[in-house]
Automatic annotation (TrEMBL), chain A:
It is found in: Nucleus. It comes from Vicia faba. This is RNA helicase. Residues 1-24 are annotated as: Disordered. PANTHER family: ATP-DEPENDENT RNA AND DNA HELICASE, DEXH-BOX ATP-DEPENDENT RNA HELICASE DEXH9. Pfam families: DEAD, DSHCT, Helicase_C, MTR4-like_stalk, MTR4_beta-barrel. Belongs to the DExH box helicase family. SKI2 subfamily. The lineage of its organism: Eukaryota, Viridiplantae, Streptophyta, Embryophyta, Tracheophyta. Residues 301-499 form the Helicase C-terminal domain.
Automatic annotation (TrEMBL), chain B:
This is RRP4 S1 domain-containing protein. It comes from Vicia faba. It is found in: Nucleus. Its main location: nucleus. One of its GO terms (molecular function) is RNA binding.
From TrEMBL, chain C:
It comes from the Eukaryota. The keyword Membrane does not apply. It comes from Vicia faba. GO terms for biological process: nuclear mRNA surveillance; poly(A)-dependent snoRNA 3'-end processing; rRNA catabolic process; U4 snRNA 3'-end processing. Residues 18-148, 151-216 form the Exoribonuclease phosphorolytic domain. InterPro entries: ExoRNase_PH_dom1, ExoRNase_PH_dom2, ExoRNase_PH_dom2_sf, PNPase/RNase_PH_dom_sf, Ribosomal_Su5_D2-typ_SF, RNase_PH. It is found in: Cytoplasm; Nucleus, Nucleolus. Belongs to the RNase PH family. This is Exosome complex component RRP41 homolog. It holds the Pfam family RNase_PH_C. Gene3D superfamilies: GHMP Kinase, N-terminal domain.
């Protein structure tokens, strides 16, 4: 809507565009495919020399990046525009549409979100009229020249080979940075790879640092040049402030010129009012408390914040928080505030009820609806995905009309249509990402702060961070001033994708893999790896060793000896043999704990120390706290008195490091596994009864040292394995004989007498290591040059064959055809359920309820267990899912069976059952705690799945089942859940 | 019993019979009771939901075949695979059809299915490969692309409200200029990724004819085998349809199948 | 005239309840989608089925089911009489209609919308019971064409001469002017789909005669099933895997 706004004349004049134009220029680059010869200039200039009338004229001067992009469009070459949300990328899209319409070509506009598609449809429809819309929910005029759709629809159109694919000349991918989305990102890659070869693209993306890489990929895949127009330009500069919790003021940390003010940042941190109770820090929800509880006398932080914003006339303001509940909670804090006059209130009420008019009377009484209006009237809004879609849209409209001054929103509000505010507040700087709280990334920060500053209205945008704990200046800096997230591939395979590709006549899953952005990025890494190899190889060559051959010989002998010694030790120290000798006071030699594992010790003697056995004990199970204990010999551990260095790690856990006796350290009794003992001597020393005093232990150690010096000449009497310990295993005898033989070989070795032998060996060892490293890099290199995902593809194909979805010649079988149809739910589990006849015997309502498990992914902690018959169905589903997962595991697909099984949530079964039974929406909301919006989304998705199942039933000729699915659709598709969007 | 409409001498008859008997013995015995005719009931486990697919119907809770063919089961799905029927298109199949009519914005094609198939003008790649909307001029020029009686190769796109639609989304589809079109019962041809391409010279055509008279499965490999056989016995083309060669092919096929079976 | 001798034998030496020799062969017309020859004694008919295929006359196209058409004709040489019947005579039209209605009843027409199925039956040799033979041949041809059907239809006639119910009348018996019932049944569904009678018959005897004809139908059904099964198996093994 930004462009619409700018069209109004009175706002156009104050735009201080020219000055900023000079300041912020845009970057323009072109990626050519390999071996591409740019069309000779004569032909290009020919077409442009006619100076075609521009397809569309804009009533304002274009920014340089816009005109640059439009030039590319006129040359009919693809372009990637990477700029901030508010910069005006829509202009490029509009121009591309106008141009296609002029040339009698079709154009497709895709966006990641249905709501955004709806909004864009409305916007384009006003402008061009020949516009159609296709989302999962609605289809309007599919024969129009300009089609607005979601990316998913575009993908499936390509799989089905819609005629649009043959007529579309321009494809506009909006918000293409969505490609890094873990779940849905792969859709973009599929769509881009499969797009018709003669089509041209317009990619609109937030600022991404690796736009060039993306363009290179497009150029390579489609064998056409792709331009990059990149700009950091913000039409309205931003100021970043910090609001320390509990304080009174704002601290400017980054000014509009982008300078980070360290001093002011420190001042802000110092102003942090320390938390009242120390425990609050540990509590994850701490800050909600801080905001909400506040002392009765003083107002909560959030209230203060909003008040300050209103006073300073920084409104309208968007306050971002990271959970739906929090969002609502904060809005409730504003109860006392009224930001609107009477005329505004009337307007709001009028707009609100106009929109709600399409709801039935019962639905109008929904608590969410009736609670919202008073809040809205006071100029306060809430926007998150848990709202009824219709409410969300009303709030968006009211916000655009300027009737909402203060909007509490979640991150979703930052994506999509241009709905800027003067000020953006981050009510938290940490975000829960599934398993832990982490700082916001700079990319997220950029995206959200992009909402600040209305072009042509505000001369600057304001960003306020509310922080409640100390943060490092570097953290803050990287968040506020950091680079945008780079665009990385989130490619992954799905069965539906593989089957569709296999069914597609010239489709080949491998082809898709080869052309994926993922592969492209992997290929990029190759030169780096090659460089590394080269460096290592050079280093290896530079190491020159005299008499290398004999040294190598010697080294190998040492290695052999070591492994043999280890064998012997293993036999001797097996609990069976050595337990009787682990009496208190026995002197043993033990290995030191060495931290640098890189260099394996050449001479064992270097790493040995001595200790006295105190006792030993049996351990049950693997104790987790001592990482030094290997599971295979965890059954016994020995307490030994020796010298240690005590270290504390960050968690405050102590770790002991055994060091040679003469080094600095404390005499301590430590538990070690038997394998850490090197040899057992025949000596036992007297031990004081009480080892608790430090002195006693120190003395004992001294005694050990004394003993050692005493025996220095003769060597310590070791326990003889055969005579003393009565070991009679043949393997021991064999090993000891070989050791003898080896030792004789050592004597013959000349090089052993060389004085520098140790150093030489070390150098040699380094060389060996380099060789090993080169080898391992070469291995990764070869695995990247071979196809990424190749093994997974193989494994997944194996799964498909095992389940009878495809034949050995990769021909899609009957079951595969069914799975092909299902793209909105787990295709394998659903197909298996269907083929196992589960849907056949149950009632329609039960079936709908069962299918709800496929679309509901949120976890509700205290959801009631569904009634028995539904629960039985659910366990049937779980069995099937488990079987499917297990089979995948057998076929070497990496999958966690339990997680997979648990990903089907029964939480809304009961609710959906009631809905299918014909209950009113307010009735079903009474039996659940889920958000209205989430529930509606799930039911809509459920309908999508049902439509796909109808197709599937058709394809196997099961008419009864088909009728059943049809009935199911008619049962759920009603009322508020399927209320049309306001934007249509 | 299905007679083979050939004039056979006594010895040829015996040889053919022997070859066919050998084939019969080769076919898997387990499958023999899976054959059903119309109105035969198909035994299913009635305790839980059975999915009744193509060629089956429900009669008082009993699953009954509505076709002659072989019962196939996939998990709980039961369906009857017909052995002789018209071609039944599946999405993604590649079909060959003859243009019957050039209609408005579309060609009507006979693909040996229960209905004619439509190939929309918009479902065709333009000869020049340009992406654009089809105009009225393009419609007038449709005959320049295909006209009546042309044989076209295209891909099945799916059923739309008005019938079966085809598409030609890559360059390899389009008019087939050489070769001849033979209609066979498609159930003979095995489902492979690419059904047989129509590089049909007269040799191949006759080979296909022989195989279809005998009712053997038609794959590229087998067609090649038949052609090789005809070359090896130094046969004239016109003799390929003769009874002697037919018997020879039958014997050859019997041998081939038994050898492949042994290999397994 | 005596149609049943005191010994209980009919003119052609059959017992009253005995059917003539029946023989069927599938695949007589290789060009057709399905075809069959059916013989009952000296009566021999050939049937060929084309379809489901595109409807030739667009205006007849049905959007929810298949159009079934049937053409019955008698070869000129099928009877010894020299009497030439112009094509499209009333009798042919009537029998065409009878066969069409009978077959349409058992074809699952709703599975093949917007298409047409043509059934051609021709009598090669007529010796009574042509109507029944035609229906039987048509059933076989439809099954051969792989057209989905509710059930097989079989037909047989019976008459009442010399106070004796007679199964499967031949031409001489047929032309005796006595009552003549043609019955068509769906054996599996156990339903009657065709019942025609010429002349008069006491109501209490009708049941007997009809019963007899029904038995005949069932016998034919068994035979047809065997033929089809054999054919199916042969197709399967010839086709190979």
């Amino acid at each position: 809507m930004g462009s619409l706004k700018r069209k109004s004349p009175e706002e156009e004049t104050p735009t201080p565009a020219p000055t900023s134009n000079i300041q912020y220029d845009c970057l323009h680059e072109v990626s050519y495919p390999h071996g591409y010869v740019p069309a000779s200039s004569s032909t290009t200039s020919d077409s442009s020399s006619q100076t075609k009338e521009p397809a569309k004229k804009f009533p304002f001067t274009l920014d340089p990046f816009q005109s640059q992009a439009i030039t590319c469009l006129e040359n009919s070459e693809s372009v990637m525009v990477s700029a901030h949300t508010s910069a005006g990328k829509t202009v490029v899209a509009l121009y591309a549409i106008a141009m296609s319409l002029r040339d009698g070509q079709r154009v497709i506009y895709t966006s990641p979100i249905k709501a955004l598609s709806n909004q864009k449809y409305r916007e384009f429809k006003e402008e061009f009229s020949d516009v159609g819309l296709m989302t999962g929910d609605v289809t309007i005029d599919p024969n129009a020249s300009c089609l607005v759709m979601t990316t998913e629809i575009w993908r499936s159109m390509q799989y089905k080979g819609s005629e649009v694919t043959r007529e579309v000349a321009w494809i506009i991918f909006d918000e293409v940075h969505y490609m890094r989305d873990r779940e849905r990102g792969v859709v973009w890659e599929e769509s881009i790879v499969m797009s018709p070869k003669n089509a041209r693209f317009v990619f609109l993306s937030a600022t991404v640092p690796n736009a060039k890489e993306f363009a290179d990929w497009v150029a390579k895949v489609h064998q056409q040049p792709c331009h990059i127009v990149y700009t950091d330009y913000r039409p309205t500069p931003l100021q970043h402030y910090i609001f320390p919790s509990g304080s009174e003021g704002l601290y400017l940390v980054v000014d509009e010129k982008g300078k980070f003010r360290e001093d002011s940042f420190h001042k802000a941190l110092n102003a942090l009012v320390p938390a009242a109770d120390g425990d609050r820090k540990k509590d994850n929800a701490k800050w909600q408390k801080g905001l909400v509880l506040g002392k009765a006398a003083e107002e909560s932080d959030i209230f203060k914040m909003v008040k300050m914003i209103i006073q300073r006339q920084y409104d309208p303001v968007i306050l971002f928080s990271f959970s739906k509940r929090e969002c609502e909670f904060l809005a409730m804090q504003m109860a006392k505030m009224d930001l609107n006059g009477d005329t505004e209130k009337d307007n709001i009420e009028k707009i609100f009820w106009c929109a709600m008019d399409m709801l039935s009377d019962d639905d109008k009484k929904l608590p969410q609806v009736s609670n919202m209006l008073p809040l809205l009237k006071r100029g306060i809004g809430v926007h998150h995905s848990g709202l009824l879609p219709i409410l969300k849209e009303v709030i968006e409209i009211l916000f655009q009309e300027g009737l909402i001054k203060c909007l509490f929103a979640t991150e979703t509000f930052s994506i999509g249509l241009n709905m800027p505010a003067k000020t953006v507040v981050f009510t938290n700087v940490r975000k829960f990402d599934g398993d832990k709280f982490r700082w916001l990334t700079s990319g997220e920060y950029i995206q959200m702060s992009g909402r600040a500053g209305r072009r042509g209205i505000d001369d600057r945008g304001v960003c306020i961070l509310m922080i409640d704990e100390k943060m490092e200046p570097s953290t803050a800096k990287s968040m506020v001033k950091g680079a945008a997230d780079s665009l990385n591939s989130a490619f992954h395979l799905s069965y539906n994708m593989i089957l569709n590709q296999m069914r597609c006549e010239d489709g080949d899953p491998e082809n898709l893999l080869r052309n994926s952005f993922f592969q492209f990025q992997a290929d990029r890494a190759i030169p780096d790896l090659e460089k590394q190899i080269k460096a290592f190889e050079e280093e290896r060559e530079s190491i020159v060793i005299e008499e290398e051959d004999s040294l190598k010989d010697y080294y190998n002998l040492l290695e052999q000896l070591r492994s043999l010694n280890k064998d012997v030790r293993d036999i001797v120290l097996s609990p069976r043999h050595c337990l009787p000798f682990l009496q208190p006071g026995r002197l043993v030699s033990i290995q030191c704990t060495s931290n640098d594992e890189e260099l394996s010790p050449i001479f064992i003697e270097d790493q040995l120390t001595w200790g006295l056995i105190i006792s030993f004990e049996r351990i049950k199970g693997v104790s987790e706290d001592d990482a030094n204990i290997k599971p295979e010999d965890a059954s016994y551990k020995v307490d030994v008195l020796t010298r240690c260095v005590v270290r504390k790690d960050k968690l405050g856990k102590k770790s002991y490091e055994i060091v040679p006796l003469k080094e600095h350290g404390e005499p301590i009794v430590v538990s070690i596994p038997i394998s850490q003992i090197n040899t057992i001597t025949g000596l036992r020393l007297y031990m004081p009864k009480d080892l608790l005093p430090l002195e006693a232990r120190e003395n004992t150690l001294k005694k050990i040292i004394e003993t050692l010096t005493r025996f220095k000449e003769k060597g310590l009497p070791h326990l003889d394995p055969e005579e003393d310990m009565k070991i009679q295993s043949s393997s021991y005898k064999k090993a000891s004989r070989r050791i003898e033989a080896l030792e004789r070989l050592f004597e013959k070795h000349e090089i052993a007498k060389s004085p520098l032998i140790k150093e030489k060996l070390k150098v040699f060892q380094r060389k060996q290591e380099l060789t090993a490293k080169i080898k391992s890099i070469k291995r990764t290199l070869s695995s990247t040059t071979t196809l990424a995902f190749k093994d997974e593809l193989k494994a997944r194909k194996r799964v498909l064959r095992r389940l009878g979805y495809a034949t050995n010649d990769n021909v899609v079988d009957l079951k595969g055809k069914v799975a092909c149809e299902i793209s909105s739910a787990d295709e394998l589990t659903l197909t298996e359920l269907m083929f196992n006849g589960v849907f056949k015997d149950i009632k329609v309502e039960e079936m709908i309820s069962l299918l709800s498990c496929f679309v509901w992914r949120e976890k509700i902690n205290d959801a009631a267990k569904p009634r028995e018959e539904l629960d039985m169905l659910y366990s049937q589903l779980q069995d099937t899912a488990r079987r499917v997962a297990q089979l995948q595991l057998e076929c070497k697909v990496q999958i966690d069976v339990d997680t997979f099984v648990k990903s089907f949530r029964p939480d809304i079964m009961e609710v959906v059952y009631a809905w299918a039974k014909g209950s009113k929406f307010y009735e079903i909301m009474e039996i659940t705690k889920v958000f209205e919006g989430s529930l509606i989304r799930s039911i809509r998705r459920l309908e999508e799945v049902l439509q796909q199942l109808i197709e599937a039933a058709k394809s196997i000729g099961e008419t009864e089942l088909e009728a059943k699915f049809e009935e199911a659709v008619s049962k759920i598709k009603r009322d508020i859940v399927f209320a049309a969007s306001l934007y249509l | 019993m299905r007679g083979i409409q050939l004039q056979l001498s006594q010895t040829q008859k015996l040889r053919l019979q022997k070859a066919l008997e050998q084939l019969e013995s080769l076919s898997s015995k387990v499958n023999s009771d899976a054959s059903v005719t119309i109105a035969d009931s198909i035994s299913v486990n009635h305790e839980d939901g059975v999915l009744k697919g193509h060629g089956t119907a429900d009669l008082d809770g009993e699953v009954v075949a509505t076709l002659c063919g072989v019962v196939e089961r996939v998990n709980k799905l039961v369906y009857v695979r017909a052995l002789r029927s018209r071609y039944k298109p599946e999405v993604g199949d590649i079909v060959i059809g003859r243009v019957i009519e050039v209609a408005q914005k579309r060609w009507r094609l006979d693909i040996n299915y229960s209905q004619n198939a439509y190939l929309m003008l918009s479902a065709m790649n333009m000869p020049d490969g340009v992406q654009r909307r089809r105009t009225a001029l393009d419609e007038l020029n449709m005959r320049c692309i295909f006209e009546e009686a042309d044989v076209i190769c295209a891909e099945v796109r799916g059923f739309q409200h008005d019938g079966l639609h085809l598409q030609a989304r890559s360059k390899k589809y389009g008019k087939l200029t050489t070769g001849q079109l033979i209609t066979v019962h498609t159930v003979f041809s095995e489902e492979t990724k690419t059904t047989f391409p129509s590089s049909s010279t007269v040799w191949a055509a006759n080979a296909v004819r022989v195989l279809s008279t005998l009712g053997f499965v038609i794959t590229l490999e087998i067609i090649q085998g038949v052609i090789d056989l005809s070359l090896s016995v130094n046969l004239d083309i016109h003799d390929m349809l003769g009874s002697e060669f037919c018997v020879l092919v039958a014997e050859n096929e019997a041998e081939r199948r038994s050898s492949t079976k042994k290999r397994r | 005239m005596e149609y049943v001798s005191p010994e209980g034998l009919r003119l052609d030496g059959r017992r009253p309840m005995e059917m003539r020799q029946i023989r069927a062969e599938i695949g007589a017309v290789s060009k057709a989608d399905g075809s069959a020859v059916f013989e009952m004694g000296n009566t021999k008919v050939i049937a060929a089925v084309y379809g489901p295929r595109e409807v030739q006359n667009r205006s007849q196209q049905l959007s929810d089911q298949a159009l079934v058409r049937c053409e019955y004709s008698m070869a000129n040489f099928s009877t010894g009489d020299r009497m030439r019947k112009p094509k499209g005579d009333r009798r042919s039209i009537e029998i065409s209609l009878v066969i069409r209605q009978t077959m349409e009843e058992c074809i699952l027409t709703h599975l093949m919308p917007r298409s047409q199925i043509d059934i051609y039956v021709q009598v090669l040799q007529a010796d009574g019971g042509t109507r029944s033979a035609c229906i039987n041949a048509a059933t076989l041809a439809l099954a051969d064409a792989g057209i989905p059907m509710r059930d097989l239809v079989t037909s047989c006639s019976a008459g009442y001469l010399n106070s004796t119910p007679l199964l499967d009348l031949n031409y001489v018996e047929d032309s005796a002017g006595g009552p003549d019932i043609t019955v068509g049944i769906l054996p599996k569904l156990d339903k009657v789909t065709l019942l025609q009678m010429d002349s008069k018959l006491p109501i209490d005897i009708l049941e007997n005669v009809m019963q007899l004809a029904t038995e005949g139908c069932k016998a034919i059904a068994n035979y047809i099933r065997e033929i089809l099964l054999e054919n199916t198996k042969e197709l399967e093994y010839r086709r190979g895997s």
